[in-house]
Amino acid sequence: MIKIGSDLMNEFEAFESKDIKLIPEMIRPPLASMQHYLCGECGKGYKWMANLRRHQRLECGKLPKHRCKICRREFYRRYELTNHYNTKHTIP
């Protein structure tokens, strides 16, 4: 049986009214606690070592390589520039 609307809310309130109180930190941990790998240069944090390595290789301490010819916005990755063109400079 699928619970909707007030049924689901009543169940949630009944659970919350017991000894345990739900707080946002219990439901989802803060982002900072999930970032195990920190860049030594800029302090940016990443959950995965591969993402930190990519950041250090392509972004940290470097200027963006890709620039929009229309609005001059700059991007580190080519796919970001492509997405920018498709969403900002195309006629729907």
Topology:
Layout (H helix, E strand, L loop, with lengths): L4 H12 L7 H4 L3 H4 L2 E2 L6 E2 L2 H10 L7 E2 L6 E2 L2 H11 L4
Antiparallel strand pairs: 1-2, 3-4
Q: Which structural traits does this protein have?
A:
single chain; 92 residues; mainly alpha; Double Stranded RNA Binding Domain; two-stranded antiparallel sheet; 5 helices; 45% helix
Kindly describe this structure.
The protein is mainly alpha-helical. It has a domain at 37-89: Double Stranded RNA Binding Domain (2-Layer Sandwich), CATH 3.30.160. The chain contains 5 helices and 4 strands, in the order αααββαββα. This is C2H2-type domain-containing protein.
How many helices does DSSP assign?
5
Please identify the structural class as seen in this structure: mainly alpha
What multimeric state do the chains show?
single chain
What is the CATH class name of the domain at 37-89? Alpha Beta
Dominant shape: elongated
CATH topology value of the domain at 37-89 = Double Stranded RNA Binding Domain
Radius of gyration: 22 Å
Describe the sheet with the most strands.
2 strands, antiparallel
- CATH architecture type of the domain at 37-89: 2-Layer Sandwich
* Major sheet: arrangement of strands: 1-2
Number of strands: 4
Strand content: 5-15%
The percent range for helix content is 40-55%
Q: Could you give the distance between the termini? A: 42 Å
